[in-house]
Amino acid sequence: MSTFDRRIRIAPSILAADFADFGRECEAIEEQGADWVHVDVMDGHFVPNLTFGPQLCTAIRPHIRGVMDVHLMIAPVDSYIDAFAAAGADILTAHLEAGPHIHRTLQAIRGAGMRPGLALNPGTPVEAAAPLLDMIELVCVMTVNPGFGGQKFIASQVDQVRRLRALIGDRPVHIEIDGGVIPETAPLVAAAGADVLVAGSAVFNGGSVADPAPYGNNIRAIRAAAEAAVPRRREEAHA
Ligand code: DX5
Ligand code: ZN
């Protein structure tokens, strides 16, 4: 794993991919410039939608060269941690709202050999993450209510990102933004301190495994818009 830095990373969510062709979709987005592959696991209970679980992660792992970033929207979490470790997840992110023992859950994720992430719903103050910042590698700030792709960005979350960035200080903790990221919203969160941008519909829109060039154009458009909002970080990235 490379050393920590805050250059802008784009993490396409395969929730917007062709569900009949996940392996080739993962290869296509990486070839088109994706930094991480974001995998949205939903249980139809914590969120009102069902997607896929550790078996899908196992199946796509050989098709991902870089980071598999798994976002659990499930409750409970703990009984599935070992299965996601075995499936090859690099980052495993659990929601603070998923149960009463998030500290234990994050410890268990680290104990299973993965990088722990903490996700926060829009209704949760980011200050709730404060006691956990020394045990995690990422905070995922939801900028939609989790459950579905293609929703509208919740603009009031930008101030939460700004407060979270101040809380994190110089800790090596990424701020990931999830939901409604498009070239128009990416600069708002980047300027507020976010460095990892999840995007589903805005990456996959207009492309396919047979014609993946639009994926690359979409990734570059989001990245350019975000980097333009943080010129100093852009210079560092090219240094
Ligand atoms: C929402 C998921 C997101 C979603 C993002 O519950 O966690 O990762 O796929 O999709 P877009 O970018 O379309 O809002
Ligand atoms: Zn997600």
Automatic annotation (TrEMBL):
Top-level taxon of the source organism: Bacteria
UniProt cross-references to InterPro entries, sorted A to Z: Aldolase_TIM (IPR013785), Ribul_P_3_epim (IPR026019), Ribul_P_3_epim-like (IPR000056), RibuloseP-bd_barrel (IPR011060)
Metabolic or biological pathway, per its Swiss-Prot or TrEMBL entry: Carbohydrate degradation
Chain sites annotated for binding substrate: S13, H71, G147, F148, G149, G150, D178, G179, G180, G200, S201
Chain residues that bind a divalent metal cation: H38, D40, H71, D178
Cofactor note: Binds 1 divalent metal cation per subunit.
Annotated active site: D40 (proton acceptor), D178 (proton donor)
Top EC group: isomerase
GO molecular function: D-ribulose-phosphate 3-epimerase activity; metal ion binding
Keyword terms of this UniProt record: Carbohydrate metabolism, Cobalt, Isomerase, Manganese, Metal-binding, Zinc
Record EC number: 5.1.3.1
GO biological process: pentose catabolic process; pentose-phosphate shunt
Reactions mediated catalytically: D-ribulose 5-phosphate = D-xylulose 5-phosphate
A Pfam family this chain is assigned to: Ribul_P_3_epim
GO cellular component term, pick one: cytoplasm
Cofactor annotation: a divalent metal cation; Co(2+); Zn(2+); Mn(2+)
Family: Belongs to the ribulose-phosphate 3-epimerase family.
Function: Catalyzes the reversible epimerization of D-ribulose 5-phosphate to D-xylulose 5-phosphate.
Matches recorded under HAMAP family: RPE (MF_02227)
Official protein name in the record: Ribulose-phosphate 3-epimerase
Species the sequence originates in: Haematobacter massiliensis
